[in-house]
Amino acid sequence: MGVNGIYGLSGSGLDVQSLVKAGMLTKQNEYDKMYKSQTKDAWIKSAYSDFYSSMTTFKYTTLSNYKMQSTMNAMKASSSDTASVTATANGAAVAMSHKVQVNTLSSNAYLLSAQAITRSNTAAQNSIYLKDSVFGKIEAGKTSYTYNGNTYTTKTAVYDTDGTTVKSYTLSGGTDSSGAAVDDAAGLAADAFTTDVSTYNIRSTTGSYTGSQVSISYDGAGSWTGDQLSMNSNGQYVLTDGSGNQTTITDNSKLTIQVNGTSYAANADNLAIGKKSTDSSYTFSTLSAATEVSATDKAISFTVAGTADTLTADQLKKQTISYTFADLANGKTYNDLVSDINATNSNVQASYDAANDAFSLYNKTGGAENTITLTMAAADTTDASGNLVSNGGTYAASLFNHLHLAKSADGALETESATSTTVKEQSFSSGSSTQITGAEGSVTIDGKTYTGIKDNKITVSGVTYSLLNKTTTAATVSVSQDTDSVISSVKQFVTDYNKMLDSLNDKIYETQYSDYQPLTKTQEASMTTDQITKWNEKAKSGLLYHSDILRNIVSSMREAIYTPVESVNSDYNSASAIGITSSTNKGHLTLDEDKLKTALAADPDCVYQIFASEQDNYYYSDDNKKQDYIKQDDYKNTGIANRLYFTSMTDGLKSISSYAGTSEETDDQSSLGKLITNLQTKMSTFKTQMDAYETLLYKRYDAMETAIAQLSKQLSTVTGSNS
């Protein structure tokens, strides 16, 4: 090859590259012709693909709507008593009046707070924290506490400086209002709550002992010196004798309490000794493994279910709500309870109304079988070793009782009896199950009674009734044609039809620019992006000019409109009879609304029949029954919408699919797809041949260069020798 691939060796003067390019010109032109043809075919395929998509939408979305009775024969219903029953009508309804008596309403299972939520912690009556509804509060520094009408003295200060943290709770005894001796330590302790230690001391056991069974040793001297051992506001133990004389214990390590042969150190875990007022016996209580719970033990546990069916083990697991004592201490609220109930997938929903301090539960589905079932966990027990097993049922029941839940039905809370005005609140206890059921509705329509209504809606003969209130006298529901809706639907059909027709005609009559052919890569390389875009706009114009496929679709669409529907036994059996006519503008439709109104007044059913009439002789368009079924040989008795659907669009889509496929993909066995694929193969083969021919030309011109160089050298030698 010459120097730089341009000029020959030794000054041969040959422009090899130009010579090769000239030699390749014919073949390059032939390749470019194939490239442009392949590009244009791909453009045509894409244009048909666009029509396939728009026609598919027109068929399955637009035309399907105009085949429906509810669209082309829309009916409306009105009620004489809209406070009790309302109604809507579909196309299947008949214009007539119906007598409707609402016997009972269906309702959802529904529980609602009959009054504001109460709290055991009387100092926190507006609290949203669950612990305040379950556990009471003993005020700091007090030496006595009243519970269930009984007065108890405390052994230790129980709250920190902010009055919220309980360290421990103890008591020494008490008397009821009549002065009789009582011992309700367990009940009182159950209302105390601890938060700042790993063990929550909220339960205690008690026993009664005679004076001989109780003794106190202080500073090594064993004696019973007082009627009572208690703690003052400074947290110091105080011995009080029968005369009221007190001894303050300054060193608790020197104090030992012995009850029934068992010694107890003076510490915060031990309760005090108290003397009963009548028989000189004494009470003693201490915390033990059997009376203590840890932070991780269950404080509240219950199951919420939405049906009366027995729950599986998996359902029980998903629908059981459990909180530990730590959960409560760390601030679980009513809102947390709502969220956890709603997350159980039980179909039961909860809500908390902070403004009214009210809680509610309801089943999202009405009917007697759709219930609210609340099952409290079992009461606390002890295991074989005497250790407390905290099941969470006691406090779960306490929580729900504080909610004051009552059943709601017919828009009012259930009362104790039919004649009572007192609301009947639900009662909960550990291990119990409470089930609230919904109710089913009943209505009498034209003398026939329908029961088992779950959502206060029922559809009979094309009319859907919404039941709102019981009635003592039957309401009248009148059904008539919704003329305005029918007219609106016909107007929309004309608009949709014209839009589809216009898109077809636009392509059929689109201007062609024969001077603008697809660009080659070489041509594009010398142009700007904007120049290429503008060029291609012209080149793509008119690709479907006078397309036989599109013209046949337009012709079929126009025939569907103009041909009378012979199955309609009426003077109004054609599009023109109801005011739909064609202008001279390429089949563009217009609507005479006055003519349509006249037709509807004379024959209310004519519009639906003209559009949606169909016969029962269908066959499937392919052997696998995957495509649309098509009507056979009964075109004249078929409605306009069905003609357009089953003939115009279906046949048109098949033609497009056969010729150009359904997308831009070429591997679809369509005529254009095969043509493009064959051209691509031919171009690939031809390009290989071109490369080989170009290589051959370079070799030939390189050989010519070499020969010229040798000849030049020989001539130079001869010339030099002669000189």
Reported for the largest beta sheet, the result is:
5 strands, antiparallel
Mean of pLDDT: 79
Oligomer: single chain
Query: What is the total domain count?
Result: 6
Rg (C-alpha, Å): 48 Å
| Helix run count | 16
CA(first)-CA(last) distance: 32 Å
Helix content bin: 25-40%
Number of separate strands: 39
Principal-axis shape equals flat
The spatial strand order of the largest sheet comes to: 1-35-3-31-32
Q: Which structural class fits the helix and strand makeup?
A: alpha+beta
Portion in beta strands: 15-25%
Query: Which blocks of ≥5 consecutive residues have pLDDT under 50?
Result: 1-10, 138-209, 268-289
How are the SSEs placed, and which strands pair?
Layout: H1 16-66, H2 69-72, E1 75-79, E2 85-89, E3 97-104, E4 110-113, H3 130-134, E5 144-147, E6 150-154, E7 171-175, E8 181-182, H4 185-189, E9 199-200, E10 205-210, E11 214-218, E12 221-223, E13 228-231, E14 237-240, E15 246-248, E16 255-259, E17 262-265, E18 270-275, E19 281-286, E20 293-294, E21 298-307, H5 313-319, E22 320-324, H6 325-329, H7 334-342, E23 348-353, E24 358-363, E25 370-376, E26 381-382, E27 388-389, H8 393-403, E28 405-409, E29 412-413, E30 433-436, E31 441-445, E32 448-453, E33 457-460, E34 463-467, E35 475-481, H9 483-508, H10 521-525, H11 529-540, H12 548-562, E36 580-582, E37 589-591, H13 593-602, H14 606-612, E38 618-620, E39 629-631, H15 640-660, H16 671-722
Antiparallel strand pairs: 1-35, 2-34, 3-31, 3-35, 4-24, 4-28, 5-6, 6-7, 7-8, 9-20, 10-19, 11-12, 11-16, 13-14, 14-15, 16-17, 18-19, 21-22, 21-25, 23-24, 25-30, 26-27, 28-29, 31-32, 33-34, 36-37, 38-39
Helix pairs in contact: 1-9, 1-15, 1-16, 9-12, 12-15
